[in-house]
Amino acid sequence: MVLKRFPLSDFNMDHDEKDEETKEETKDVITDNLGEIGRYQLLVGLLFAVMEIPHGWCMLLHKFISPKVDHWCSQPEGFKDWTSEQWRNFSSPVGDSYNVYSRNYSSLAGIAFGEIDMPVGGDLVPCDKWDYDTSMFQNTLMQKFDLVCEDKIMTKIGSFVFFAGTGVGVFIAGLLSDKIGRKKTLLVFVLLFMVSGLISAFAPTFEMWLCARFLWGAASLGLRAVKTVM
Questions:
Q1: Burial of 217 from C-beta contacts in 10 A (0-12 / 13-18 / 19+)
Q2: How high does pLDDT run on average in the chain?
Q3: For 23-44, what is each residue's pLDDT tens digit?
Q4: With CB atoms 3.0 to 4.6 Å apart as the test, which of 100, 136, 166, 200 could cross-link to 212 if both were Cys?
């Protein structure tokens, strides 16, 4: 019987191959290409986490700026000594916030409420100015832009426009990131977010506010999409 002898190098080779296979199994494709998590990655992650705060506020903001506020036809200067309840009872039907009786109010200016004979009924004309209950809210969309009567639906349009902007912003953010890079896109959307936010805060007309709100929505979700990928 003849025993065949195997070189020792064959056994060493098998052992080396097993070590290589073990190393391949323990490798992480992401960390091998991007590197381990260090100080820079932690700072960027913290910055992006803080940026979630204004994004979340933008998404919830409309609930706080568009509540229903009690309102009535504006009280003339000559009736400022009257309470709002006295003026409403005298000038409009009960529960009517959109019309006022057609009367010669200037001839009654300066007269105390108790000295006037309360007339019954009369023709109604639409109000052109309104006063608002400011006991709880002082600066809502309704109060700032007089979104009452047939314009009250515009508060809902404002919400729709904002979320329409978020859809457009995500789409543009993806295209722009592929073209100029995510870092530059991120800076563009940060700038757009700041500018549109300032415009919406100080917009003198509802139309300007609506345009700024659209851009704010686009910047908000577009910015979030870019930084999530980064």
A1: buried
A2: 82
A3: 555 666 666 666 667 777 788 7
A4: 200
Q: Which two tokens stand for residue 163?
A: 């979320």
CA distances from 145 to 61, 123, 169, 229 (A): 17, 27, 27, 39
Residue with tokens 């659209």: 214
User: Coil, strand or helix: which one is 73?
Assistant: strand
What are the structure tokens assigned to 210, written together? Answer: 């609506």
| pTM (two decimals) | 0.72
**In whole angstroms, what is the distance from residue 15 CA to residue 108 CA?**
107
Q: CA torsion sign, 216 to 219 to 222 to 228? A: negative
Q: For residues 216 and 197, is the Cβ–Cβ distance under 8 A?
A: yes
136: helix, strand or coil: coil
Quickly tell me which residue has 């508060």 as its tokens: 155
Q: Quick one: how many helices (H) and strands (E) in the chain?
A: 9, 4
CA end-to-end distance (rounded Å), the chain: 69
Residues 49-85 pLDDT 10s = 777 888 888 888 888 889 989 988 888 888 888 888 8
- Residues whose CB falls within 8 Å of the CB of residue 31, separated by 6 or more in sequence, listed in order: 37
